[in-house]
Every structure is written in C-alpha cells, then in structure tokens.
C-alpha cells in the first residue's frame, strides 16, 4: 500500500509565500541561506513552494536569520501550526494523481472559482453518469477501480456549492460541451437538466459561448481561476491538459487568465440566453 499522501493547504501555501518574500527582502539567495545555515537550497526551494512543510526548528532558524521582529515571528509560527491540517482527501482518493488532489484541496478553501471549459461540462456540475462516461473516455488506461475513484472524488467535490458559505462559481462553456454526446442521449438530457437546475442557485452563474462567436481566448483549452478570502492568498490558476496538471501563480499569469475569462464572459450569451440554449438542446436529446 502506498504511503499516505498529504496535499498543500492554503495556510501552507501562505506560509511558503511569506517565507519566500522574507528571504527576498533580505537580498539572500537560497544558496546564501544554505551557506549560512546548512539548510540545502533544494530543501528551501521545496519549503518556499509549499512542496514540503518545514520542521519547526527550521522555521525558527529562518526567521532568526531574516531578523524578523518577535510579534511577526509569533504570527508566522501560529500560521505554521495551522498549516499542519491536511487537504481534503478521503481514503479512496489516495491513488488519484497528485496534481488533482492538490487542486481539490485548493478548491475546498477557495472563495470563488471561474471555470472555462470548451469540450465538457465542468466537474462541479456533472451528473454521476456523465462523470463516469467522461472518465472512462478520457482515462483509457485506468482500471475500473481507478476510474470509480475519480468519479467518487468528483461527486464529493460538489458539496462546495451547497455548504454553509458556498463557493461562488462562474462557469463559461463552449457550445461544443452541450452538443458532444457523452454517454448517450439519456445521459446528456439528464446532464443538461442538471445545468438548468444548478443555475437557479444564487452562487452559480453559467454562460455559453455559441459557435457563432467565432474564435475566442478559450480555444487553446480549459482553465480555472481560484480566488481566496484572505488578501494574502493570491489567485491561483489551474490548467489541466494532456501534459498534466499545472498550477500558475505569477502576477503576469494571473492577470492574463483573468483577462481571458473576462473576454470569454463578454462573448458568451447572457445567463438567461444561455439557459434558453441549454433547454433547447435538452429537448433535442429528449427526442433522440
């Protein structure tokens, strides 16, 4: 059995970012820190990118090296203790790809999420039958159990839309996602009905980009923009493609993807017109 894997939390990511900024503020390179403390530069890189949680004595050593005031040290040490909490991974999710489990953790802690999808319905809005058909079609080499783990995880993720402080979710779909017959007409009809139902929630917005809109910034592939409650937590971009899961958090990348999403919203049909388009396609599948 594989060793249990933890995923980064927002608190660990916040701690990592602050440690990185504190080092930058001193003008020290990672190699300089290694020379002064003996902490390997690769280990420091992993700490500063939230790939590893530092030991307490390592954190204390770094804060003293950076000459951080006592009150700030206490705040960061409190954040360190909070960062020990694991991301949301149920036991049956341990065999999921590491990038996906990390994404699930961030999604659970996000305040808002903007998702563009060009070929399929976003996971947070999928029915179980649609999710199963997508998973089996995409993960051709997966075993039955592996595919079911993905479906179970996807269904479990959806409670972020209905929890006490629900996620603010804005989905923009290309019309192709409505027309692609995933799982057959009955599965598609139920899936489109699910979209119509989900759009009634005050925290969910769904728009569709019609084919008549022509070329648009989303054509290269799907992406997700996550934002968080705490202003210290910068937006996070998640891109999932054939090359695997990629997280982006540089200011330039965030600015570009936010602008792309705004452009997609502008070329998409309004939410009301999008619902009419979805309802019309649902009726077509009902008569197939």
From TrEMBL:
Superkingdom, taxonomy of origin: Bacteria
Domain HTH cro/C1-type: 19-73
MF (Gene Ontology): DNA binding
InterPro entries to which the protein is assigned, alphabetical: Cro/C1-type_HTH, DUF5753, Lambda_DNA-bd_dom_sf
UniProt xrefs under Pfam families: DUF5753, HTH_31
SUPFAM superfamilies assigned: lambda repressor-like DNA-binding domains
Name recorded for this polypeptide: Helix-turn-helix protein
């Amino acid at each position: 059995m594989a060793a249990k894997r933890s995923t980064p939390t927002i608190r660990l990511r916040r701690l990592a970012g602050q440690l990185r900024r504190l080092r930058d503020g001193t003008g020290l390179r990672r190699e300089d820190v290694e020379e002064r403390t003996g902490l390997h530069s690769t280990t420091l890189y992993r700490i500063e990118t939230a790939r590893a949680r530092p030991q307490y004595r390592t954190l204390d050593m770094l804060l003293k090296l950076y000459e951080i005031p006592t009150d700030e040290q206490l705040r960061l040490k409190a954040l360190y203790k909070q960062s020990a909490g694991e991301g949301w991974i149920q036991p049956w999710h341990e065999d999921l790809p590491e990038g996906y489990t990390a994404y699930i953790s961030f999604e659970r802690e996000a305040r808002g999420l903007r998702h563009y999808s060009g070929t399929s319905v976003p996971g947070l809005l999928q029915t179980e039958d649609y999710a199963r058909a997508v998973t089996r079609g995409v993960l051709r080499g997966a075993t039955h159990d592996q595919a079911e783990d993905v479906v179970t995880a996807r269904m479990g993720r959806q409670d972020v839309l209905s929890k006490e402080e629900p996620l603010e979710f804005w989905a923009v779909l290309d019309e192709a996602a409505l027309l692609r017959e995933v799982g057959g007409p009955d599965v598609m009809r139920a899936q489109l009905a699910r979209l119509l139902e989900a759009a009634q929630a005050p925290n969910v917005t769904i728009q569709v980009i019609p084919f008549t809109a022509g070329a648009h910034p989303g054509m290269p592939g799907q992406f997700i923009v996550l934002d968080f409650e705490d202003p210290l937590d910068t937006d996070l971009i998640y891109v999932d493609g054939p090359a695997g899961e990629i997280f982006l958090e540089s200011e330039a990348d965030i600015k570009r993807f936010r602008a792309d999403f705004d452009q997609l919203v502008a070329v998409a049909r309004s939410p009301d017109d999008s619902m009419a388009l979805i309802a019309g396609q649902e009726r077509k599948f009902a008569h197939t």
